[in-house]
Specification:
Elements: H1 4-20, H2 24-31, H3 57-64, E1 75-77, E2 80-82, H4 101-124, H5 129-136, E3 152-153, E4 156-157, H6 159-167, E5 177-178, E6 183-184, H7 201-225
Antiparallel strand pairs: 1-2, 3-4, 5-6
Length: 236
């Protein structure tokens, strides 16, 4: 626990930093020496900040009442003193390319990697999983007890791969499949049919719960179609 003197010194240093760096250029230059952290996107209704524990509503309200390049006063969040700077303001609606460039780039790279790997799998003209592993220098791994209710393959969430495995005839090597963790070619060894249910009460309850959720979704759609402006977050 910091002493009152230490707390006072740190708060004074933060206050001096905020006063001496009131432009975006100065903030970026001086802030590089401190614990700088960029939040990619901040929503108007947010109550906390990424990387910090505890309420940060005052910081969010300040940000949405400011303009690009503004530097904040000192705020205390999660026993830390912070000074914020508004680097950019994204207009309402679909973001422009620069705002989502890194996200889009990651998806494009992932797709291109899959295309290269899929071509290797197809060009190998392998007859089985073992044959494909030998030709590509990889190892065959086995996934057991995969199902629609448990669409995981060796720790990775892969619904496309599991769905293909359950729909493929046993013993036949599949075409390349684009998964979340890579490119897959699968060879189903066996499919075990689940036991037939006699009591559908649990499934009926689950479907009713889903339908109730859908009704709430419809209400949200109606709100959007009505073009309601929610100004609560300007005050709370």
């Amino acid at each position: 626990v910091p002493s009152p003197e230490t707390e006072k010194n740190i708060y004074t240093a933060a206050t001096s930093f905020a006063a001496d760096n009131q432009t975006a250029e100065k903030f970026k230059t001086s802030g590089a020496k401190l614990h700088a952290h960029t939040i990619a996107a901040l929503k108007k209704d947010a109550y906390d900040l990424e990387g910090l524990q505890g309420p940060a509503r005052d910081v969010v309200k300040w940000a949405f009442n400011g303009k690009k390049g503004d530097v904040s006063p000192v705020y205390t969040v999660d026993k830390k003193h912070l000074v914020a700077m508004i680097e950019d303001i994204r207009p309402k609606g679909l973001p422009d390319l620069d705002a989502v460039r890194e996200v889009v780039k990651a998806e494009v790279v992932k797709t291109k990697k899959y295309e290269l790997l899929a071509k290797k799998i197809t060009d190998s003209k392998a007859a089985s999983a073992d044959d494909l592993a030998a030709k590509t220098g990889k190892q065959v791994t086995e996934a057991q007890r995969a199902s629609f209710g448990n669409p995981n393959v060796n720790g990775s969430y892969e619904p496309k791969v599991v769905a293909a495995a359950l729909a493929s005839p046993a013993g036949k090597l599949s075409q390349p499949i684009q998964g979340n963790a890579g490119a897959y070619a699968i060879q189903t060894t066996a499919v075990q049919d689940p036991p037939k249910a006699s009591d559908y009460g649990m499934y009926t309850f689950q479907l009713k719960q889903k339908l109730m959720g859908k009704s709430r979704d419809a209400q949200e759609v109606e709100k959007k179609l009505a073009s309601i402006d929610d100004n609560r977050f300007d005050f709370f």
